[in-house]
């Protein structure tokens, strides 16, 4: 699996902010009170009761490093790997106080991202027999978008735009204010440069016909039934990319994919993914 690289500056900033939130004003007073400063420990990060797909190991690594550079982090799997319950994902060794202080922040990042990757993989597997690719949306946790979209890639999904500046996506409200599909498309074409793509949302076949006459790069078929999607795909005839969206969940994604659309976007990949249960198991060094 060819995964994108996470921007290390974003990783550092996110980890720094999360640790500052958790350490507060006085740091980990529990570890300071109960564990000698000289104590060393070894620990593993392990999956609990459910299988999953790995995402976010480098963020976990940075968390332990940021707390204490003396902590040694060994990844035993790679992002994008599938694992079974009980699997060991990583091993950490070093000062016990530091290890325990970093534990929760590292697991919060890792559990969240593994949950997204795991759910995405289920969507991707459901449509694997079709040409459709599953995409995420901008319905992400504020401040964590780059990481959550990375987790989607780890699960075998694709990324939609990362922000408002990636591409033009003309939604129903834009169409309403602009005065219709055609005026909105013409204004967009007059505004953008040659490298920027235009996608427009439609909720009827009549609007789709307008788009096909005027031209766009992608059309978003919003909240259409499978029967409507099949008719829309036939109308498009491969001239532009067809994306299905609107309330698409795991139980229905297969039927949507079988209509012949190219892309299926679902906010559920990020906003409804359950955190995967991971734990840190520690043994005091002899």
Give the proportion of residues in helices: 40-55%
Q: Describe the global form.
A: elongated
- Class of the largest domain in CATH? Alpha Beta
Count of the separate structural domains: 2
Order of helices and strands: HHEEHEEEHEHEHHEHEHEHEHE
Strand portion: 15-25%
Briefly note the structural class of the backbone: alpha/beta
Name the CATH superfamily classification of the largest domain: Aldolase class I
Question: What is the subunit organization of this protein?
Answer: single chain
- CATH topology title of the largest domain: TIM Barrel
Widest sheet: strand ordering: 6-11-10-9-8-7
Rg for CA atoms: 23 Å
SS field, number of helical segments: 11
CATH arch. level architecture of the largest domain = Alpha-Beta Barrel
Largest sheet: 6 strands, parallel
Number of strands: 12
Span from first to last CA?
A: 40 Å
Parts with pLDDT < 50 across at least 5 consecutive residues: none
Question: What's this entry about, in short?
Answer:
The protein has helices spanning 8-23, 29-34, 57-67, 96-126, 145-154, 172-178, 181-191, 205-214, 226-236, 250-257, 268-271; strands spanning 40-47, 52-53, 72-75, 82-83, 88-95, 133-135, 168-170, 198-202, 218-222, 241-245, 263-265, 278-284. By secondary structure, the chain is of the alpha/beta class. Helix 9 (226-236) links the parallel strand 9 (218-222) and strand 10.
